[in-house]
Amino acid sequence: VTAEWFDLGQRLHAADTRTPIARLHHAPISASPRPVAVRARLSGNEISVTAANPTTPAATATGPAALALLDTLGVTLAAPSPATLVTDNPATLALLHRLTLATPRTSPHDPVAAHIGWWLDRADFPGGRAVVDTISACRARWVTGTAPTAEAQPATWRRWLDLPDDSTTGLLTLHSRLIDGPPLRWLDVLAEDDNWSYNAAQNAYADGLDWRRPDTTARAALGLRSRCDAADLYAAAVLTDPLARRRAVHTGHVATGTAHPLPVAGKPTKTAVLEITCSRLDIRLRPGNSVTGWAGPADATAPTFAGAVRTSTVRGGHLILTLTGLTGSIPAFVQAVTLLPAAPSVHSQRRSRSMYRALYSARRSWLTTGNRPTLTRRPVPLDVLVAGAEHPDQPTK
Amino acid sequence: MTRIDPALAEYATRLLVGTGLTPTDAADVAAARTPATGPLADALRDGWTTDDQSGGDQHTDNESTAHDPGDLR
């Protein structure tokens, strides 16, 4: 794995040119209709909040008045669409949460507190637009000619991106810079999920449910499932960017090599198996993985083919992947190819979550009753048996 | 010659332990001012040449949507 050296090459180039170098051609976050830049700070026992949106200049308030300030900026569940929290201070959301916990349910600012609760719920969804940490987004989009530790400081990004304004208004300018250009693929899907979740939060609030209550088992399970789906989709979205794919060659997530199509016996024009001789050994594709590929280098344009890895072996010092179930544009003999994991299907993810939700809401499902499903037996693949026998926690005798 | 700030120099020195290169040597290898072969040189050069535009202002590619990895699902 040579990704660290690849990154160093980018950093040295940035240092040489005195300008940031792009990690992605695409924007790593999607545009937001209602961004609100917020910084919260703790002074003694008091939490002070400075906030601004594109139409309202920055203002600062302390304690309960901070919620009133956010209300004037449209941070309330009463708003028809969600506001996006834009911040460069990792402590901000936690401090806002502390403010909300001190707010009684009878407070006129409870809808503001509930909106902050929704931010808290959505903050860890990769690629979502409920909460934008500008530092993480900058690190996803560019690399500077300094050490990685310096990139954790907002001042480093202001200096390298030539954005001297360190106010919350300047934070909105940085956000505009981050969303400039075409977004990564599927960010619109992740934004739709944010909106769906916002509507659900509004409905729950209207029904009188207290957003402060701990998650039920069903809600926690669905939340975990949704986060896993979002993480899978975002990882696939990043690999749609040619610059990210070029780096992913060095992490082993993208494979390059040469193709050796093997025809079906008696049908020389039909390919049954495609052997890929990989240029590196540290490829992360495994037997059973679905893959997508094309003829050409990792950052090239070409019609794609799809298949599944059947075997992965090392021959003569080279990793050989055999692909079956091929569809699409099969590459020619000894043509250079690029392979990467097939992206998850958005439709399948949503259908699967819907089924999961139904199982948790049905009174008699095995998930809600806690009863074990009926035992059924079926043939177990040899690979699974071998993997079980080799499990480190269960040493074989 | 590439001007390298002290923090980057320290970081690069740690990354290059055992390679026999200094940060300045690495910059020369990455920029192809010094001929070198092998995984280290390849990775440094690949990183150096990924993008020649600064500030993320270039969005000229359209290939990522052209070969959409989800097309065939």
Structure description:
With 397 residues, chain A is of the alpha+beta class. Chain A is built from 13 helices and 13 strands. Chain A has a six-stranded antiparallel β-barrel. A five-stranded mixed β-sheet of chain A has the order 4-3-2-5-6, with helices on both faces. A two-stranded antiparallel sheet of chain A has the order 1-7. In chain A, strand 2 and strand 3 form a beta hairpin. In chain A, helix 1 crosses helix 10 and helix 3 packs antiparallel against helix 4. With 73 residues, chain B is mainly alpha-helical. Chain B is built from four helices and no strands. The N and C termini of chain B lie far apart (49 Å). The interface between A and B is large, with 67 and 49 residues.
- Shape field of chain B: globular
**Amino-to-carboxy terminus distance of chain A:** 35 Å
* Percent strand of chain B: under 5%
Rg of chain B over CA atoms, rounded to whole Å, is: 17 Å
Instruction: Classify the beta-strand content of chain A into a percent band.
Output: 15-25%
Number of strands of chain A: 13
DSSP summary: helix tally of chain A: 13
Features:
heterodimer; A: 397 residues; alpha+beta; 6-stranded antiparallel β-barrel; 5-stranded mixed sheet; 13 helices; 13 strands; globular; B: 73 residues; mainly alpha; disordered C terminus
Secondary-structure map:
The complex is a heterodimer of chains A (397) and B (73).
Chain A: H1 3-17, E1 21-22, E2 35-43, E3 46-53, E4 56-62, H2 64-72, E5 84-87, H3 92-101, H4 110-122, E6 131-133, H5 134-141, E7 142-143, H6 154-160, H7 168-178, H8 187-206, H9 217-238, H10 242-251, E8 255-264, E9 267-278, E10 290-295, E11 304-315, E12 318-328, E13 336-341, H11 346-361, H12 366-369, H13 382-389
Parallel strand pairs in A: 2-5, 5-6
Antiparallel strand pairs in A: 1-7, 2-3, 3-4, 8-9, 8-13, 9-12, 10-11, 10-13, 11-12
Helix pairs in contact in A: 1-10, 3-4, 4-8, 5-7, 9-11
Chain B: H1 6-15, H2 23-30, H3 39-48, H4 63-66
Helix pairs in contact in B: 2-3
